[in-house]
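Summary for the lay section of the report: proteins are chains of building blocks that fold into shapes. Here we show the chain for Insulinase family protein and then a coded description of the shape we predicted for it.
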Amino acid sequence: MKKSIMVLGAALLLGGIATAQKVDFEEYNLDNGLHVILHNDPSAPVVVTSVMYHVGAKDENPERTGFAHFFEHLLFEGTENIKRGEWMKIVTANGGVNNANTSDDRTYYYEVFPSNNLKLGLWMESERMLHPVINQIGVDTQNEVVKEEKRTNFDNRPYGNILTVVKENMFKNHPYRWNTIGSMKDLDAATLDEFKEFNKKFYTPNNAVLVVAGDIDKKQAKEWIQLYFGSIPKGETLKKQTFVEEPITQTINASYQDPNIQIPMLVASYRTPSMKSKDARVLDLISSYLSDGKSSKLYKKIVDQKKMALQIGAVGFSQEDYGMYILYGLPMGTVTTKDLLKEIDEEIAKIQTTLISEKDYQKLQNKFDNQFVNANASVEGIAENLAKYYLLYGDVHLINNEIDLYHSITREEIREVAKKYLNPNQRLILDYVPSKDQVQN
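The coded shape description reads as follows.
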């Protein structure tokens, strides 16, 4: 009885939090095409100023890969009014933090300041958009930074090139076929003029969304936004190219030798639809059911019960045009990667032929409710979600109602979507193995 009361209390608490977390916002456009979203949250004296640009690795020239990620670094070099090396100093001296990140679809910059420094945050982001200094010394400096990042996170890291190999095998036509960090050879070959042209084309007000979230006075914020961003010239109207991949109709087999590992890894990757589709959201539930954490079906069966693997898991890549569902496993002892694949296929077949239990279905819904609440639990999370839902999904209101789409998914839809996308003839099987030198040693 006591346990039941505790569970009920937790459910009521979670429901209260979910209701309290409804995000109010206001959005409008400047004359130059910059979309602005304001969210007032006086609960803490902080403010986030962020800009998301609709440019990622998929917008690059195939012979100049890595540009979008490179600009994530380059646009911290300085501006006409912020001297080289001063950006971080200004932020920290005023009690703030900042960062940026890049994906295949977009690039995101943000600052978090005490709320009395909103004007400073807006000025800095307007400087980045209007007055970036792109010169050879900055390019050369960041080139070395990116090369070190690639060595650390990819080339010298155990299993560090899995995503690179998966993408180049899963996509033949779409720019998703190369990794976001790109090729160092391409960056070395690029001229200064090419970097300037990339900036001129993509880092424009009409290819971006500005989000201001936190303890703000909206009237004052609008005045400062107009002051700093209103005069920035509109860029060229971009026509996004559409890339279509032919359906995968037979198993793609590939292998890769990694000198940094001693245990082979099984990798099975399925191509999935755009993250904007309902099917993609159904696949999110399937991924969580099969492979999210130690309570998932695959982990309990393969790691806990049969002790066939050191690790089993999955990575889901939800992206604007296509996605990927990548399952991986590290076999233990005499178990082979083929043995792991057989176990995985058995669990997928169960979903395709039998409805998951009502208990497992409710567990999934509870997990996604919790994730939805946590995603909007901080002003930083709210700012990025507002930008993402506008720029990539085309619907800011999803910040409040996307969870309803997950609630609408039935057990029958889970079964049908599994049958539609998770078949042996629709995937890549990658043998990710130690290099021959490693095996001999």
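Put simply, here is one thing we learned. The two ends are 60 Å apart (CA to CA).
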